[in-house]
Amino acid sequence: MTKNISLLGSTGSIGVQTLDVAEMHGIRVSALTANKSVKLIEEQARKFRPDMVAMLDREAALKLKIALSDTDISVYEGEAGIKAAAEYEKSDTVVNAIVGVAGLLPTLSAIKAGKNIALANKETLVAGGSIVTAAAKQYGVKIYPVDSEHSAIFQCLECSQGRFVKKLILTASGGSFFGKTRKELENVTVEQALKHPNWSMGKKITIDSATMMNKGLEVIEASWLFGVPDEKIDVLIHRQSIIHSMVQFDDNAVIAQLGTADMRIPIQYALTYPERLPSPASELDLAEIAELTFSKPDYDTFECLAICREALRKGGLYPAIANAANEAAVQLFLEGKTGFLQIGELVGKAVSDFKGSDSLTLDDIIQADKETRKKILV
Ligand code: NDP
Ligand code: MG
Fold it and tell me: What pLDDT, on the 0 to 100 scale, is given for residue 306?
């Protein structure tokens, strides 16, 4: 079980819930990082007393340095500061709760420093799956999934030590716009897209849920985490988000993991594995929920899901390009500069414009990410 963590992205939705779990189980928090949220990270630092805190934004780091000057907590800045937190010697595990591909390099730094990873930052595996999984193997560290579907699959696989897997069944809530037609989606607003039926999350992943890009990213994430190809991963709409995912075995037995829609359950399991300790999340009351429903996803309306699957099948840099295009398109949508349906169009165009490449180094990934964003954000 984890004893000491560096928490990257501590001020976000996953970050805050990770601190709840750490507090409940007396897990020491040695390092915290964020981008700009000075006030919240100051509060967290005063409560959890880490040795170090890092802010990506230099101005924010300066403000935090002044705010924490009456303490002995060191404040660092920029990418180097986040890297230092990821490598911090006292931590045995790095919780990566950064949003976006910005989480990739810190994940690699942590792996190379011999840390186990509790991974919420799915973009890390989408863009750099081959490099990250190879590095984890080389340095002998574990990647524990925090994403609820992947935590569910991880738990389902335990009953057969990962053998006899016929397929993974990823459940999806369907997001804010389940059942809508493309016509109905033409003029939806940012506010409507941000209303998720079951989960309270950061803005980027909430938009990704509305477009179903999130499920596409999760198919790629699952493929890397569990070594399973696209055709062995099904997506199933399950509006209630009670079954977090399932595994079908060769004998057609299906094992599922259920729980309330509370991320503190998968976060905790990633930190306390293989132990199961009391949780701050509430008990599941199936009689109260009464009904669990299932249906097929609509790949035509929610094209991002289909595009991600295509990118996974093509391999190489395609997933990194789909991810970069999505990050840029979601940014434009949140700023009111493009429509909801244009997110899928921009991701689709980026993937179909790419002519492929034989090389897949870290530099190739970073370069492809930059170029793809630049084309969309001009
Ligand atoms: P949030 O937007 O709530 O939080 C993101 C965190 O990352 C904040 O601490 C933010 O700091 C920091 N951050 C933002 N940009 C950068 C950057 N460029 N470099 C370093 N740090 C940065 O995101 P979520 O917590 O919702 O999601 C985090 C990750 O977890 C995502 O990959 C998401 O897909 C995944 N995930 C989230 C779930 C959820 O329930 N929220 C469920 C499953 C997966 P600041 O506050 O200063 O901006
Ligand atoms: Mg998920």
Answer: 98
Distance CA 23, CA 59 (A): 29
30 and 119 in contact (C-beta within 8 Å)? no
pLDDT tens for each residue of 3-59: 999 999 999 999 999 999 999 999 999 999 999 999 999 999 999 999 999 999 999
Q: Indicate if ligand 1 lies below 6 Å from the C-beta of 206.
A: no
Residue whose token pair is 């750099």 = 128
Separation CA 257–CA 361 (nearest Å): 36
> How far apart are the CA of 244 and the centre of ligand 2, in A?
8
Q: What local confidence, expressed as pLDDT, does residue 28 receive?
A: 98
With 90 as the cut, is the pLDDT of residue 197 above it? no
Task: Return the best residue to mutate from 16, 98, 194, 369 for the ligand 1 pocket (most ligand atoms within 8 A of CB).
Answer: 98
Average pLDDT of span 303-318 = 98
Predicted pLDDT at 21: 98
From the CB of 9, is ligand 1 less than 6 Å away?
A: yes
For residue 37, the Cα-to-chain-centroid distance in whole angstroms is: 20
| 35 close to ligand 1 (CB < 6 Angstrom) | yes
For the chain, give the percent of residues with pLDDT over 90.
97
| Alpha-carbon radius of gyration of the chain | 20
Beta carbon of 56 within 6 Å of any ligand 1 atom: yes
Q: Are 319 and 308 in contact (CB under 8 A)?
A: yes
Q: Is the pTM of this model over 0.90?
A: yes
Concatenated DSSP letters of 108-139: HHHHHTT-EEEE--THHHHHHHHHHHHHHHHH
> Where residue 114 falls among pLDDT bands split at 50, 70, 90?
very high
